[in-house]
Amino acid sequence: MTDETKSGLDAVDEGPVPSDAAGPTQVGVVPDPHSHPTVAALLERFGDAVYGHRIAAGDEHVVFADPARNLEILGFLRDDPDQRYDLLRDVTAVDYGGGRPLQVVYVLWSIPNRRSLRVKCELPLDALAIDSVVPLWQAANWLEREVYDLFGITFRGHPDLRRIMMPFDYAEGHPLRKDFPLRGRFSRAEQTRRALSQDVGRFYTEHDIEIGREPQELPRAGEETPGSET
Amino acid sequence: MAQKTVEFTVGRNPEMGPGGTPVASPLAPFDVPEPDLDSEHMLINIGPQHPATHGVLRLLCELDGETLVDVTPHIGYLHSSFEKLGEYRTWNQIVPLTDRMDYLAPLIYNCAYVMAVEKLMGIEVTERCKVVRVILMEMDRIFGHLLWLGTTAIDVGAMTPFLYTFEERERIYQLHEALTGARITTSATRVGGMMADLPEGWIAQLEDFLSTFPKTLDECDRLLTNNGILIGRTQGVGAISAEEAVNYGLTGPNLRASGVPYDVRKDQPYYDYETYDFEVPVGEHGDSYDRYLCRMEEMRQSLRILRQAIDRLPEGPINVPDPNISLPSKTDCMSDMESMIHHFKLITQGIPAPEGDCYFAVEASKGELGMYLVAEEGGTKPVRWRIRPPSFVNIAAIGKLARGHLIADLIMINASLDIVLGEIDR
Description:
heterodimer; A: alpha/beta; Beta Polymerase, domain 2; two-stranded parallel sheet; 5 helices; B: mainly alpha; Cytochrome-c3 Hydrogenase, chain B; three-stranded antiparallel β-sheet; globular
């Protein structure tokens, strides 16, 4: 199909074009760090590991943290008696396209202090791995699985890092990345072929199958079940 | 495996008179020892097509006898990749995607999305629009809770509350229809205002609902709250402590039932919620019964907010009077050159956003609903649109809640979490 004949829904395949000129990923107003008590404490304690502070959308404080020390920094935010960010509202990721680093975004909320903070960790495209925060918050379990599934970021130490939205054997990649076309990588025919040749076993993990087989392999009394004579 | 052989002596009981006085049934006691089943675990799939999972949710249960050793929810059957689709649509074109996520309370999603876009762009909506959106969101909170109440009652075997609640839901459907023309897929909001102002007589229709709905709610209350079956099925079932509930990220009534008074309307008020007089019901034990009580009370509090909002509903324009944001009226479009140009620019290009990102949360009927938006300078489409779905995080805790309970309790625990699969899978 040539470009001239593309119309209707086919045209959306062109979608958002990632900008070639890699723009900044840290945007927003650079404020005084003392405008947010947590940011001041973070800068004092972690120094260089917290390397950016922005205000987004008027009143939202965003902190950029070293991805190698995310567990340490988030653990401090959760456990320090002055911070107590006990509710992990969200874990997600952002792909700006154009070869810029992917951002892992942690949205935190402190129920006792009624305070919000967003922590971002930037991961270069050739090293998409970061420590899992499941040891800190169980809420991160599925949220990180979703980021892994849709962005391809590996969470080290995650107890159950499997695809969650897409099928376990999905082979087309990670859909929310900017280089992923809207309709998938495979042709419609190939997608249909794969859907029709599904193996039921893929709906179970290895652990599940192990449990499911056990009772059937147990010896039955006398081996005389009806119909077994034939 | 030992075969159980039990002999029953079934015959006509001579003690049974013609009047039919029941006596002790002649059941023979069986003394076959229970086989040791400790090492035998069984896998059972509940769903994906099962009425008690409230959607296409598949619960993979590992059972020891009737006791749940583990529950693994499998999701994704409804996955439509709304977030990816959003990246290919202008800000206003995304609105129809939002009500397809929580189709049980669609207006809350419509409002939450445009509120996030307005925060990102720094748009302040008109006073009338604020109050109208509060009315719509509280109305749909009742709408969502009513569905939960009816289906939960069915799950424990009570048919009547289901009929009562769906009758009331039908009246809210009619309110939806009068306002938007659609019953479920409302798409009622636009960036900077609403698709249309409230039609004539709509408030009177809502007031009619408000005047008679409390009676139905009281009837359901009388049918269920002190009902021995409901209490037996829910008290102590699926309990979670306050600390764990926060750690698992539960929000909404599921968190408040554990005693944590976290409500976005109180903690991060939007649309002047701090000036409305309402209370946040909080449970004590964190079990299914407390979740039930919290939602019942929340409906009453929503009624209070609705009455206050109707009283303070101001006159005036509903859309922001800015031609770069709101569409001009059709009459202006046809007669005025400038309005036509604005219309053309808005339809073909969309509204340009400033560079930045924004996380905005509202209290939806299921819990905290967050919208995270990322935009590039002048972008008329989002770079990233992320929904923080309350049901997704809540259902992730079902393994923790159900472990050690009987398989029959799993149905109640699942019902008490109040999930909607359209939003979990997105």
